[in-house]
């Protein structure tokens, strides 16, 4: 159904192109048209191994043994030009593009593409007493092995734009754009301990129109009106109503640029946006504006200043918000961005910037959790959280100062060395997990080596913390090391690129497990007396640690005139863990009594992807193609996620 | 071996010579026509004729092929006279460097590039030709793919290889779907904020909702890292850690359970199996971006 609609749209655009083309034929003197057409046919075969393909094919639709096609047509007369591309026909990721122009008076563009996104349930669990203990929720219906039980959301995107201008007044242009996204299929969803395959069926359509004008040779101004509609037609899940309710959005936007001289440039704009929920009657207003100026007195100096504001206001006097426990937060965000660059002797470049930010939030304090202000609480480690001593409300006002400096040195033998520093200082954090202080020095080096080799390296050290926290005292450290090596043949017959990154970080929070606003007691075994809330756990420094290794290689070779071979491979090793040491409920007599939890939802993944493609020119315009790609997902914690996916394709393309 | 003073003198001399040469070039360069260009660049000229630019220029701008080379590269007489000698100052006069971006901008006035002159990329001295390959692009518009961006943005090159990511590496999305490399209204984004950029495709999370999760309207990157993550849903940390960085875990082991939840969902008073299923907060608080029915994003 959707496919037909997409094809009809494409054909509609095509017909519009033909009509306009015919009309141009009457007016334009016919001249020999430069016409070319291309086509490609491929046979695609795939195999799967392992218990799940949910992650190897997260962004791949079903692709079994099928023939796929690409078609292209490029033609035109004197003023009318038509480009039509239809790619991956018959696959689950079909796409098409149309580009028609008639002189510069009418430009019609259309795009269609389909994306398949697998959203299966990812099993969660804990490491308890050193053993991975998965959730019992996942069932065969939630993993991708049975093609009939997979959860795939397909997204169809369509975009069309039409620009019109009079030949006598090309400085004024009218434009109409449409953008549409349809989502349909199914995705996994967990509601209160049960996993559902939830139907997805919604669309977003955005239509905009406006006028764009050149203001002399130095400036440009445009106005745009936007209407967007989101509508959800999916059935509710487990009797829940109002899932993803429909909303409308309208916006008015103006933007301009003006260059009073060759060294001074100005640009800016203003926007008013209104979102309306058709379900609850609430309206949200956004007002944003920006103004930028760049001044380049010489080719070596560049100064710029940018001012930006955005405010969001919620209309709470409509619909049924009156019964809401809190009032929505309104906020005003102001930002400045002042930047200076200077290139001096030996191409030494200095760059400095200062970005102040101010955010004000109305009603922020109404969103602190209700149980934060409970009576004194005693935790297992005898930490006492006094009543009203902690809050996680968003800051009513915060000011951030971002400073950045960078110096690039050109050393002998074309070696380039760069030192950078980013520094943040804030009076308070917007949210508990945001920093008030952050420091990020970095160093980059690029070294040209003999035989067209280039080596590059980077090291970045990042540290940040929330110094004004009253609850979680968030801290974060991250070190990143990157290195790469590139080689390319001077005659363009081959190239090799290698890239490796290692990233290691630790985030730390003061975690508070378990809290109730009523004092609760347990009977300790054999004690015969009430025991104060024993399982309330406080960890003064709970770390989340992660390590990522990413390696990638790409190769291109033209060993013979008619042969081109490309290949690439990547290997990712990702580990992450919430290093907990928490004894749950030593006095509870149920199944989990006394268990020690070491980590929640840890990650230890190896992902290997590689592909190779070869083209051989059979004749002047005919090329044979062969390709292979394979991806392997190895989950060292939960092997039920493991899988290997191999795709082979064989095709021939022709150009006329 | 290495004499900085001598190197400096050579550099100064070269700069002076170059400046004189270019000034002279600007004075005397004249148009020679594409026929002269094709004498050396025949293969490139043939490719150009079939290219998007090569077809659009005569049809849309009335620029015949004979004038097309110099309409972008400028008058070529000195370049031609240099005859391939790269040390000749005239050789560089047709180079499409950042200083010559104006030649592109004289035709290209799309709304998407209205902020180009105040953009970061322009300030960094990028030439249009640094990203757009005009001659080699074939019949279609020379829109750069994400690979072009990732050549410089290496941190993002690493991130798109992490286990969970937007499908940039798979070729289903481009960097330019969210970013405007020519300069956006807010930083380099296509919308006026991070949240509005995300809502373009994730419209269902835009609201307004009766129950709002405050970070959603403000900035999605408070919880998500859009280029790639080790965690499902592109979360910055795994659950429940991410949630605990702002919240207390309220599911106490009490006889009555959490006061706001049914007793059977109390994390620690429930059987072990139920406890395990609650190790991800969104298993119950699944509508975490905002909802209209009930409290705490559970419906």
Write up what this structure looks like.
- The complex is a heterodimer of chains A (656) and B (299).
- By secondary structure, chain A is mainly beta.
- Helix content of chain A is 4%, strand content 62%.
- Chain A has a 26-stranded antiparallel beta barrel. A four-stranded antiparallel sheet of chain A has the order 7-6-31-30, with no helix packed on it. Chain A has a two-stranded antiparallel ribbon with strand order 18-19.
- Chain A is globular and about 85 Å long.
- About 9% of the residues of chain A have low confidence.
- Chain B is an all-alpha fold.
- Among the domains of chain B are: 69 residues, no CATH class; 84 residues, no CATH class.
- Chain B has a two-stranded antiparallel ribbon.
- The N terminus of chain B is likely disordered.
- At the A-B interface, strand 2, strand 3, strand 4, strand 5 and strand 9 of A face helix 4, helix 8, helix 11, strand 1 and helix 13 of B.
Sheet with the most strands of chain A?
A: 26 strands, antiparallel, barrel
Reading the helices and strands of chain B in chain order gives HHHHHHHHHHHHEHHHE
* CA-based shape of chain B: elongated
- DSSP helix fraction of chain A: under 10%
Residue-averaged pLDDT of chain B: 79
Count of DSSP-assigned helices of chain A: 1
Please provide the count of β strands of chain A. Answer: 34
Stretches of chain A where pLDDT is under 50 for at least 5 consecutive residues are 13-32, 140-148, 318-325, 515-534
Distance from first to last alpha carbon of chain B: 74 Å
Mean pLDDT across every amino acid position of chain A: 83
Structural class of chain B: mainly alpha
User: How many helices of chain B?
Assistant: 15
Oligomer: heterodimer
Please give the radius of gyration of chain A in angstroms: 30 Å
Quote the beta fraction of chain A: over 45%
Q: Strand count, sense and closure of the main sheet of chain B?
A: 2 strands, antiparallel
| Derived structural class of chain A | mainly beta
Q: Strands across the major sheet of chain B, in which order?
A: 1-2
Strand fraction of chain B equals under 5%
């Amino acid at each position: 159904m959707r496919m037909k609609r997409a094809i009809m749209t494409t054909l509609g655009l095509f017909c519009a192109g033909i009509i306009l083309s015919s009309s141009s034929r009457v007016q334009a003197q016919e001249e020999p048209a430069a016409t070319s057409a291309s086509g490609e046919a491929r046979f695609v075969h795939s195999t799967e191994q392992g218990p799940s393909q949910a992650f190897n094919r997260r962004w791949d639709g079903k692709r079994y043994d099928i023939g796929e096609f690409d078609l292209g047509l490029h033609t035109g007369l004197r003023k009318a030009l038509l480009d039509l591309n239809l790619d991956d026909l018959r696959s689950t990721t079909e796409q098409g593009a149309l580009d028609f122009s008639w002189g510069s008076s009418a430009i019609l563009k259309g795009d269609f593409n389909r994306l398949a996104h697998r959203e299966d349930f990812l099993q969660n669990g804990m490491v308890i007493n050193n053993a991975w203990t998965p959730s019992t929720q996942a069932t065969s219906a939630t993993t991708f092995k049975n093609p009939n039980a997979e959860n795939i959301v397909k997204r169809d995107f369509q975009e069309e734009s039409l620009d019109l201008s009079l030949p006598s007044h090309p400085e004024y242009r009218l434009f109409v754009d449409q953008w549409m996204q349809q989502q349909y299929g199914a995705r996994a969803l967990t509601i209160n301990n049960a996993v559902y395959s939830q139907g997805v069926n919604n669309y977003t359509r955005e239509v905009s129109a406006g006028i764009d004008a050149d203001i002399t040779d130095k400036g440009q101004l445009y106005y745009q009106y936007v209407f967007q509609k989101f509508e959800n037609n999916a059935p509710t899940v487990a009797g829940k109503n109002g899932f993803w309710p429909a909303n409308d959005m309208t916006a008015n936007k103006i933007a301009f640029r003006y260059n009073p001289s060759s060294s001074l440039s100005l640009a800016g704009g203003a926007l008013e946006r209104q979102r309306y929920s058709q379900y609850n009657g609430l309206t949200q207003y956004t007002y944003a504006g920006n103004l930028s100026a760049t001044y380049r007195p010489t080719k070596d100096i560049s100064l710029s200043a940018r001012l930006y504001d955005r405010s969001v206001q919620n209309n709470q006097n409509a619909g049924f918000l009156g019964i809401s426990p809190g009032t929505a937060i309104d906020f005003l965000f102001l930002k400045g961005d002042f930047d200076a660059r200077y290139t001096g002797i030996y191409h030494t470049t200095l760059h400095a910037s200062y970005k102040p930010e101010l955010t004000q939030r109305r009603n922020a304090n109404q969103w602190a959790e209700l149980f934060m202000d409970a009576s004194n609480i005693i935790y297992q480690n005898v930490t006492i959280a006094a009543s009203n001593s902690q809050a996680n409300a968003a800051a009513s006002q915060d000011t951030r100062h971002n400073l950045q400096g960078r110096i690039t040195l050109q050393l002998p033998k074309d070696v380039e060395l760069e030192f950078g520093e980013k520094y943040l200082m804030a009076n308070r954090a917007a949210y508990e997990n945001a920093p008030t202080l952050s420091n990020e020095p970095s160093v980059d080096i690029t070294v040209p080596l003999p035989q067209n080799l280039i080596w590059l390296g980077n090291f970045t050290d990042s540290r940040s913390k929330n110094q004004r926290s009253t609850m979680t005292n968030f801290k974060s450290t991250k070190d990143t090391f990157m290195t790469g090596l590139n080689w390319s043949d001077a005659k363009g017959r081959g190239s090799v690129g290698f890239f490796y990154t290692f990233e290691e970080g630790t985030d730390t929070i003061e975690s508070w497990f378990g809290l109730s606003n009523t004092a609760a007691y347990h009977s300790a075994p054999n004690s015969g007396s009430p025991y104060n809330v024993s399982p309330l756990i406080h960890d003064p420094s709970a770390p989340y640690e992660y390590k990522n290794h990413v390696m990638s290689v790409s190769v291109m070779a033209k060993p013979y005139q008619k042969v081109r071979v490309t290949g690439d491979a990547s290997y990712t090793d990702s580990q992450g863990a919430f290093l907990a040491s928490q004894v749950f409920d030593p006095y509870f007599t149920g199944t989990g009594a006394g268990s020690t939890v070491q980590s929640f939802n840890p990650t230890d993944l190896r992902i290997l992807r590689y592909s190779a493609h070869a083209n051989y020119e059979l004749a002047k315009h005919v090329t044979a193609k062969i390709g292979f790609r394979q991806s392997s997902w190895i989950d060292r914690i939960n092997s039920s996620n493991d899988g290997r996916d191999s795709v082979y394709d064989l095709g021939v393309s022709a150009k006329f | 071996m290495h004499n900085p003073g001598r190197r400096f003198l050579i550099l100064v001399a070269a700069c002076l010579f170059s400046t004189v040469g270019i000034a002279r070039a600007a004075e005397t360069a004249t148009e020679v026509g594409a026929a002269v260009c094709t004498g050396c660049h025949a293969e490139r000229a043939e490719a150009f004729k079939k290219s998007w630019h090569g077809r659009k220029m005569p049809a849309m701008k009335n620029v015949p092929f004979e004038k097309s080379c110099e309409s972008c590269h400028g008058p070529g007489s000195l370049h031609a006279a240099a005859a391939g000698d790269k040390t000749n100052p005239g050789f560089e006069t047709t180079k499409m460097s950042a200083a010559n971006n104006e030649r592109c901008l004289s035709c290209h006035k799309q709304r998407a590039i209205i902020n180009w002159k105040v953009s970061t990329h322009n300030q960094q001295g990028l030439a249009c030709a640094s990203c757009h390959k005009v001659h080699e692009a074939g019949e279609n518009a020379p829109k750069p793919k994400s690979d072009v961006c990732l050549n410089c943005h290496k941190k993002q090159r690493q991130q798109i290889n992490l286990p969970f990511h937007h499908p940039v590496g798979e070729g289903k999305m481009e960097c330019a779907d969210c970013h405007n490399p020519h300069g956006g209204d807010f930083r380099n984004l296509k919308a006026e904020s991070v949240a509005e950029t995300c809502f373009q495709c994730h419209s269902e999370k835009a609201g307004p909702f009766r129950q709002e999760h405050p970070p959603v309207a403000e900035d999605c990157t408070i919880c998500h890292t859009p280029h790639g993550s080790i965690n499902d849903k592109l979360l910055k940390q795994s659950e429940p850690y991410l949630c605990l960085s702002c919240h207390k875990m309220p599911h106490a082991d009490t006889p009555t359970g959490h006061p706001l939840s049914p007793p059977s969902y109390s994390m620690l008073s429930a059987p072990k199996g139920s406890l395990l299923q609650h190790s991800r907060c969104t298993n119950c608080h699944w509508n975490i971006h905002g909802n209209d029915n009930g409290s705490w994003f559970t419906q």
